[in-house]
Amino acid sequence: QFPFGRRLPCDIYWHGVSFHDNDIFSGQVNKFPGMTEMVRKITLSRAVRTMQDLFPLEYNFYPRSWILPEEFPLFVDEVRMMKDSDPSWKPTFIVKPDGGCQGDGIYLIKDPSDIRLTGSIQSRPAVVQEYICKPLLVDKLKFDIRLYVLLKSLEPLEIYIAKDGLSRFCTEPYQEPTLKNLHQVFMHLTNYSLNIHSGNFIHSDSVNTGSKRTFSSILCRLSSRGADVKKLWSDIISLVIKTIIALTPELKVYYQSDIPSGKPGPTCFQILGFDILLMKNLKPMLLEVNANPSMRIEHEQELSPGVFENVPSPVDEEVKVAVIRDTLRLVDPQKKKR
């Protein structure tokens, strides 16, 4: 670590947020130029939708989405048409601010007219998506999966998926959305940073229990119930690859403008956090992609009002230490010399 700037060139530059942290002329950087922009909710939705238009059956793992405010009239029209053709369809929609993170600003609605079309949506663009009403439940709770994906290079396209991830649980038993329970975030939203404030959040020393568990512990339970875990994994791998393929053309444009070919420059790699929801029928659905997934292996515990201490989190440690270790092994610059 060089807290006060570097004096020597490095093999690996590990940046906090984005590619543009410093001028770098060699080595490998743990961020791709343009990645943060590409995985924002609106850009990701646009990239996936382009592919959905071309390959509808291949890209059916992303919920139907509209971009606000520009597609608001389209959203209203399409929902009305779908309701006319199927009066029994009672959808719920989820509104997610474009740049939001950690569940900030997300809310559920039953009808397009419920969108908070105050000044905020004009100044704060968002994506509205069909809400997945029939998620797979474990212990009556909704959960999502955070998987860590290493994009090792764009040309050739090289992707690695960590064998284990995190399952992040809601803290109230799930019920399908109704007008009465739409606002119950601890039931509908799986974001760790929201649920940690719930009185029901369980910090566990075991990877199989609590409000945050390993994905492998969920796979074990599904397997013991007779689920086809191999197929589930293969569907998840397919979802990850197709998502990255959808982002690749624009990522290459960013890459070539920052690191023109023929000139010496660094090469890039990046760990992405894929948030995936399993439906009741075990079909994986992509919720979002994170360019800067948290690598913390501890959580804050309030000892007394306003007094916090950091407590190790065994689940985070088990998953994330392996992700960082194997990433460094995969991009190891010494390997060529051995």
From TrEMBL:
GO terms for biological process: microtubule cytoskeleton organization. GO terms for molecular function: ATP binding; tubulin binding; tubulin-glutamic acid ligase activity. The keyword Cytoplasm does not apply. Gene3D superfamilies: ATP-grasp fold, B domain. Keywords: ATP-binding, Ligase, Nucleotide-binding. SUPFAM superfamilies: Glutathione synthetase ATP-binding domain-like (SSF56059). It comes from the Eukaryota. One of its GO terms (cellular component) is ciliary basal body. Pfam families: TTL. This is Tubulin polyglutamylase TTLL11. It comes from Tauraco erythrolophus (Red-crested turaco).
